[in-house]
Amino acid sequence: MSIVALFDAARARLRPLPREALGEFVQPRRVLGMPRAPRIVPRGEAWHLGALLVTDDAVLATGDIVRARTEARRGYAAESQRRRAELAAAARRGGFAEGQTVHIGWTVLDLGAVAAGAASGPLSLRDGTPSVRWSASGGWMPLAAYLDERVGLLEQPPLGAS
After folding, report:
1. What DSSP letter does each residue of 9-64 carry, written as one string?
2. Is the dihedral of CA 44, 60, 161, 85 positive or negative?
3. I need a labelling partner for 60 at 20 to 30 A (CA). Which of 20, 43, 105, 162 fits?
4. Which of 147, 121, 131, 157 has the alpha carbon at shortest distance from 49?
């Protein structure tokens, strides 16, 4: 089965399932010379399948994931915590609901290039089989099995999953 057909079949199973928001980090223009706070603005929705985000017409590599929340002054033990809180506040300023999951830093994958034998993000042909690298340090898995497993988890979440 071709890589495009695999994603078309996955979309057919995903249609009734909820999607998550896609966002883009933007730095607004200055107003009267004063800087404005950055925002994460809506850029669509996708089904989250681990290392992949699937939209109606594209496949994306997952970037960062944040939950929108109102900005609050806190003390942070690590700079990474501060950065994540800033991103969460930027998502809230961009119009996302409190607690809403937002994907940022995603990249569009080229399925045509993968079908031709090149790699695109976590997708590649391995011995002629469309495959996905499910984590930066993980191995390759046949894409058909990966999509079947991930869609299955969305259809029937494990007990206790939220």
Report:
1. HHHHHHTTS--EEEEEEE-PPPBTTB----EEEEEEEEEEETTEEE-SS-EEE--E
2. negative
3. 162
4. 147
What percentage of the chain carries pLDDT values higher than 90?
73
Copy the structure tokens of residue 153. 């988890």
pTM for this model (two decimals) = 0.87
Residue owning tokens 């994540």: 84
Please choose, from the candidates 27, 29, 47, 31, the residue with its C-alpha nearest in 3D space to the C-alpha of residue 39: 27
pLDDT in tens, 77-124: 777 888 888 899 999 999 999 999 999 999 999 999 999 999 999 999
SS3 88: helix
Cβ atoms < 10 Å from Cβ of 124: 18
Q: How far is CA 29 from the centre of its chain?
A: 26
Q: Which residues contact 133 (CB under 8 A, 6 or more apart)?
A: 51, 122, 124, 139, 140, 141
